[in-house]
Amino acid sequence: MKNYINLINKILIEGEPTNDRTGVGTTSIFGTRLEWDLRRGFPAVTTKTLAWKSVVSELMWFLSGSSNIEDLRERRYGKGNEGATIWDANYENQGKALGYSDGELGPVYGNQFRVSPYKPTTEVIEIPIRTFREKNVDTPKLELQTPEKGFGEIFNTNNFGKVITLSKVSEVGAKNSIYKCQFLNTGSIRDLSRPNLRSGTAKDNTQSQSRMDILKDCDVPEKLYNLWYNMCSRCLDPLAVSYEHYGGSGTKIQQSWKVLSNFSKDISSVPGYYNWLHEPGYEIDKDYFGANTYSASTTIFLESSYNKNLAKVRGNTCYKVTYNKRTELILFLKPFCKEHNLPAETVRCSIKDKLYWSNEEVKIELVNSSKGKLFRYKMYTDQIQQLIDSVKEGVSTGVHSRRNMVTAWNVSDLDKMALPPCHHTFQVHVNSKKELSLMWHQRSIDVFLGMPFNIASYALLTHILAKITGCTVGKLIFTGGDTHIYKNHYNAVSELVTRTPLRLPELELPEYDNLDSYLEDDISSFKLIGYTSGGALTAPMAV
Question: In CATH, what number is assigned to the domain containing residue 403?
Fold first, then answer.
């Protein structure tokens, strides 16, 4: 790791002082490159202590596709532990400012790596259409949380209108539980007993709360509260305007989603959530997946116009589709195709139409008529799995792609992220000896705190990708844009450069041929053998 020390000295000697977003100030140079031969040892910084468990847990968090720091916390410390993560400050400062709650960070690294909405895939998924569901066909089975009876229920009162239960406050015997409830007429929230609710004698004798007081009690953004409240009303309240078309027609709410806190925690996993949160004209929809239950696994956020067009569909025809010499079965909806001028012989759809089909010409021919099934292209691209599949194909055929890249720099999502990606792109190369090398680019890099972490993370990723694809490791290469040292890191950096780099450790990790197995393993399975360091050096992180 001498090259790391050399880079620090270069910045101290040649760098220029700059002002930055955080207000701390830096000494910076632009355009840097470092390289490590992974066959000679694992590039863990030894002049200060490397937070190895944090490195492993964050990488596996990225690879899992999650963008919630509670998932990272669980990977690092175990379930139920409240230890700190390196993303906590970003959540508290930027995440909450964007309107996120319950640890959500927006579409950051994991979301871009595993579920980025760049283009439709050629894989199709089969989903039912509710319009043609037979009466005796069961709703798709869901794994539901089952809270105590009474959450999300609406009761009539004798003199104060309707009241809905929000959460349980206490339990006094089997029939005398106390619930936090909201009166729908005034918006006031108070604690009520179940006997009062059942008998209709509950009284709204508290002062009506303002909307901000209600949201403070519920601890969710106003827009999210309104979404949950409207969903509950149309499914649970027989007097609601749209109840006839929802609750009265069999539409249900997943039991745990009747609890506001559960709903606000789960909703960010629903596709299109970030669009709905930041852009006008989106609404939650369950018909896209043909479900009659609102839940995390059966809903999606769609543009209102698209959702209305989908709701108009009453007929369908099944076609055989040939695209890029591949034949797949797809169901085209007659009224929908007609409305969008999609002829029966050649279908040409643009992704801007939100149809998520191909923007190439597709030849189709009538096969038969069918009811109850709908085929759509998947909306998301799993970049990591695509890269793994491509590398494996190259190893098998001997023809290696020069397009084995993953990027997190999705311009349309940048303003929705708690932190736009610093290390935003990496590329994988395999040579004739089946040695897998990785190069990553970083637009902005904190050399003292961040760089040792990033080096170790991408080195570990290189080893994992090599194991999965049947390769051995080759080189790890870093290229950087704004490469800087923060002013409040000078004392720690001055101590760091006086220390002598020690012998590099070796990496020990499980040998799996698929990514899921690594994600399911405990972080303790990833070990640095023979690692020693010059001791801890700390400095504040600029947020």
Answer: 3.30.572.10
Secondary-structure percent of the chain, ordered helix, strand, coil, rounded to 5: 35, 25, 40
Q: What is the pLDDT of residue 457?
A: 97
CB atoms within 10 A of CB 369: 9
In a domain, 10, yes or no: yes
Lowest mean pLDDT among 74-83, 131-140, 310-319, 502-511: 131-140
Distance CA 88, CA 93 (A): 9
For residue 23, the enclosing domain spans 2-51+382-529
Say if 458 falls within a structural domain. yes
Interatomic CA distance for residues 377 and 375, integer angstroms: 7
Residues 151 and 47 in one domain: no
Side-chain half-sphere CA neighbours of 231 within 13 A: 27
- For residues 392 and 514, membership in a common domain is answered with yes
- 140-145: long-range contacts (C-beta < 8 A, 24 or more apart)? 140/291, 140/298, 142/254, 142/293, 142/295, 142/297, 142/298, 144/254, 144/255, 144/256, 144/295, 145/255, 145/256, 145/262
Q: What is the pTM of this model?
A: 0.64
Report yes or no on 267 lying in a domain. yes
Q: Which of 255, 281, 307 is the last residue of a domain?
A: 281
Residue carrying the six token digits 């089952």: 146
CB 209 within 8 A of CB 165: no
Residue with the bigger pLDDT between 363 and 505: it is 505
- Tokens (6 digits) for 248: 């009265």
422 carries an active-site annotation: yes
pLDDT of the residue at 347: 32
Averaged over 280-298, what is the pLDDT? 78
Q: Is residue 256 part of a domain?
A: yes
Domain count, the chain: 2
Q: What are phi and psi of 312, to 5 degrees?
A: -75, -15
Among candidate residues 181, 235, 422, 471, the one labeled active-site is: 422
3-class DSSP state for residue 73? helix
To the nearest whole number, what is the mean pLDDT of the chain? Answer: 77
